[in-house]
Design a protein that fits this description.
This protein has 169 residues and is mostly beta strands. Helix content is 0%, strand content 42%.
């Protein structure tokens, strides 16, 4: 199944696996401006669960300018959970992954660049700094003017800000 999603929000969803999406041969590509917040899973992946079981069930996920924040999971992996990493291709560019419960926010492999990830890698232009949301408690995940994510996105991104500066995360 192939999906392209743009300018969409997912919030307050509950599922056994993947509060937003459960991947078992899931293809999400060329998707941007996605907000996933306050979702819950009872097993794994408060936001996304990618099973990547091999064979025809290979998961391909490519997100640009996605925010995955404040998701929960009973087993402690609130961001993105990947069951079989060799069968999952995950590309994240200009994304913010913050405030999800658990030991880690997402797997440590794959193509992750120009992202703000809580307790995540600081290589490939990634940062681990509070993104400074305007009011996450009030469901406003836009960035404060002093956010470290402002003008910190991929310099080659197709999307430039209205002020013609470098893209934000």
């Amino acid at each position: 199944m192939g999906l392209t999603m743009n300018n969409v929000s997912f919030y307050d969803n509950t599922a056994s696996r993947g509060g937003v999406a459960y991947g078992h041969g899931l293809w999400i590509y060329e998707s941007s401006h996605i907000l996933m917040y306050e979702n819950e899973a009872t097993s794994y992946g408060g936001a996304l669960y990618l099973s990547g079981n091999g064979g025809i069930y290979h998961d391909y996920i490519s997100l640009n300018k996605a925010t995955i924040a404040d998701n929960e999971c009973n087993n402690g992996i609130g961001g993105i959970y990947v069951q079989n990493e060799p069968y999952t291709d995950l590309t994240l560019i200009n994304c913010i992954i913050w405030g999800n419960d658990g030991n880690y926010q997402l797997p440590t492999v794959d193509d992750i660049t120009y992202c703000c990830i809580e307790d995540g890698p600081t290589t490939n232009h990634n940062i681990d700094d509070d993104p400074e949301f305007v009011n996450a408690a009030g469901d406003d995940y836009s960035l404060e003017y002093f956010s470290p994510c402002i003008d910190a996105g991929d310099r080659d991104s197709d999307y430039d800000d209205e002020d013609e500066s470098m893209a934000d995360m």
